[in-house]
Amino acid sequence: MAETNLLVADSWLVKQGRVRALKLHRKRFLSSCSQLAGFQEKEIAPFWEAVLERIPQTGCWFPRIEMAGSLRQPAFQLRLRKAPPIHETIRLSDCKIADFRKTPRHKGPDLTKMLEIRKKIRETGADEGILTTPKGFLLEGLTTTLIWWEGKTLCTVSPSHRVLPGVTAQLIQSLAEKEHIRVACRLRKPQDLNGCEVWAVNALHGIRQAINWKHAPFKTSFHTDIGHWRKALDCFLEKI
């Protein structure tokens, strides 16, 4: 399928017909379609149901649903992709460019350019680029949400900033609250995370532990039972 003007997109990992928090992905996709193009849920529901019917019940898949074309006459489409290898660690690098995104709270309009930048970053030996504010404060990864630990507090960037509402991050925060772990939104620069345990999370890989951060005085820390958190995320798995 050829690339088209991408307006809204969402994707999730499917393993043997099961997905984590599929309802949240649906909600995010419908919300963006409504806010950007004025669609009502009932207008998109037939497309959503058709997508679910096409996803195989066996194997590992990473489908992407899209609203593409023009806002006046958008088209809905599915890219049925096999899942790439899943990793447990990640190497980060500052993008060192101004935040170029036009709609950071919606997945889609900026995605093509973000993936192009990530490709260049991978050529330098890192896996993911980190976006920051003009004053150097952390926002998020090109395709991930940043989560880190300050002592026993689980920290992330405030949703009031220019960040995407990440589904996996929401699930992790929900798990933390159930276990009575303090969750806080913090304004931090990359160097402030030196010595902290840092996670980059998304729907494909779940939780990846940062083991290196280029251009930052970053010393890794591994003090949590990350296996517990990865297993806990599985409680959100549901059958398609």
Key attributes of the depicted protein:
240 residues, D-amino Acid Aminotransferase, Chain A, domain 1, 2 domains, 8-stranded mixed sheet, 5 helices, 26% helix
Please give a quick description of this structure:
The chain has 240 residues and is α+β, with helices and mostly antiparallel strands. 26% of the residues lie in helices and 30% in strands.
Describe it for me?
- It holds the Pfam family Aminotran_4.
- With 240 residues, this protein is α+β, with helices and mostly antiparallel strands.
- The protein has two domains: 74 residues, D-amino Acid Aminotransferase, Chain A, domain 1; 147 residues, D-amino Acid Aminotransferase, Chain A, domain 2, CATH 3.20.10.
- It has an eight-stranded mixed beta sheet with strand order 9-8-7-14-13-10-11-12. Strands 1-5-6 form a three-stranded antiparallel beta sheet, covered by helices on one side.
- It is globular.
- It starts with 5 loop residues before the first strand and ends with a strand.
How many beta-strand runs?
Answer: 15
Number of domains: 2
Can you identify the CATH superfamily of the largest domain?
D-amino Acid Aminotransferase, subunit A, domain 2
Intertermini distance:
24 Å
State the order of secondary-structure elements, H for helix, E for strand.
EEEHHEEEEHEEEEHEEEHE
Globular, elongated, flat, extended or rod-shaped: what is the shape?
A: globular
Q: What share of residues are in beta strands?
A: 25-35%
Question: How many distinct helices?
Answer: 5
Question: What does the secondary structure layout of this molecule look like, with pairings?
Answer:
Layout: E1 6-11, E2 14-15, E3 18-20, H1 22-37, H2 41-54, E4 60-61, E5 64-69, E6 74-79, E7 89-94, H3 111-122, E8 128-132, E9 138-141, E10 145-150, E11 153-156, H4 167-178, E12 183-185, E13 197-202, E14 206-214, H5 226-233, E15 237-239
Parallel strand pairs: 7-8, 7-14, 11-12
Antiparallel strand pairs: 1-5, 2-4, 3-15, 5-6, 8-9, 10-11, 10-13, 13-14
